[in-house]
Design goal:
The protein is mainly β. A hairpin with a 4-residue loop joins strand 5 (about 90-95) and strand 6. The protein has one domain (about 20-135). The protein is built from one helix and eight strands, in the order αββββββββ.
Length: about 140
């Protein structure tokens, strides 16, 4: 688990759907699982019941490397509920080495030090009873 999460104790538990259960089960085990379409050889994120590439349902779940770069980000100085009284914090889109982009939070990083293209690695924080994937600088 991470050493610093500005939203700690504030994150609500996720409400998994039947097709997202493997993602959240993997998260509970500290593994970031992505859907993979073997027909086209591509990953997709966020979880869906069918492939966005082929329209087929034969998706596989594969563990991601957890490595990526900051694609874009914003610093929020005013947080909506349930994150009240938490600011500033970084909301980022991270491009994983598998080619998908995830919207997430950056932790263990002062907001003024975040840069587009910055290498990041997977970290985990608690979201209610679940693990929630976030990223931190990969230094």
């Amino acid at each position: 688990m991470s050493t610093f999460d500005p939203l700690a104790g504030q994150r609500p538990s996720p409400l998994p759907y039947n097709f997202t259960q493997p993602f959240w089960k993997g998260a509970g085990e500290g593994r970031l699982l992505l859907q993979y379409d073997p027909d086209v050889g591509k990953y997709q994120f966020y979880p869906r019941p069918i492939s966005v590439f082929s329209g087929r349902r034969n998706l596989e779940w594969r563990e991601a490397s957890g490595k990526g770069t900051v694609y874009t980000y914003t610093v929020s100085h005013k947080a909506p509920p349930p994150f009240k009284n938490v600011s500033p914090f970084v909301i980022a889109t991270v491009e994983l080495s598998e080619g998908v982009r995830m919207m997430t939070n950056l932790i263990n990083c002062p907001p003024d030090s975040v840069r587009i293209g910055m290498p990041v690695r997977l970290a985990w924080v608690k979201a209610g009873e679940a693990n929630f994937p976030v990223f931190e600088p990969d230094v």
